[in-house]
């Protein structure tokens, strides 16, 4: 009986050793960072003015701060105001809240009738200019847009604190991935 237990533990050690060897080989062959930023050291992210027809007074500052934080916290790039390797700038071109009927909830009234709750959709669109001075072929001008659907019973302040944050996060993820990720 002891002989079988020793054989099993030796076999397990061999398998674990083989797995560790394979992982170390794979790690040396591929970088898991996936970053396309190799030589770039500095970044300048200018404020994104809100040029939308409907103006949220805090949107420009919130978006600009969030995108700057994303790049400075998740990359090794240093912020600068003079001669950056990377320049990111743009503008908020659309901020709209429109009624929608997508996935509306229903409620039954005390008389047996059905009332359909209305929902709204928040859409934010941002135009981005990305300039890579070390690798100009990677530079681009793109428009990013995203939306969030919410119950129309939310107050304006609740929309601005929760829904705007959700949409901003999604747009910033897209921008960040297009600039940094090399999939």
From TrEMBL:
Taxonomic superkingdom: Bacteria
Gene Ontology biological process terms, A to Z: Gram-negative-bacterium-type cell outer membrane assembly
Cellular component, GO annotation: outer membrane
InterPro entries, A to Z: LPS_assembly_LptE
Protein name in UniProt: Lipoprotein
């Amino acid at each position: 009986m002891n002989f079988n237990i020793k054989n099993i533990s030796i076999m397990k050690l061999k398998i674990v050793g083989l797995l560790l060897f394979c992982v170390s080989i794979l790690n040396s062959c591929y970088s898991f960072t996936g970053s396309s930023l190799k030589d770039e050291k500095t970044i300048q992210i200018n404020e994104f003015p809100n040029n939308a027809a409907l103006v949220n007074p805090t949107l420009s500052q919130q978006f600009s701060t969030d995108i700057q934080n994303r790049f400075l916290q998740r990359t090794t790039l240093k912020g600068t105001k003079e001669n950056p390797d990377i320049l990111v700038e743009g503008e908020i071109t659309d901020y709209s809240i429109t009624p929608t009927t997508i996935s509306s909830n229903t409620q039954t009234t005390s008389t047996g009738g059905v009332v359909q709750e209305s929902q709204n959709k928040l859409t934010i669109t941002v135009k981005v200019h990305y300039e890579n001075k070390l690798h100009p072929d990677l530079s681009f001008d793109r428009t990013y847009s995203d939306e969030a659907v919410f119950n129309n019973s939310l107050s304006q302040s609740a929309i601005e604190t929760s829904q705007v944050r959700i949409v901003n996060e999604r747009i910033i993820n897209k921008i960040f991935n297009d600039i940094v990720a090399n999939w």
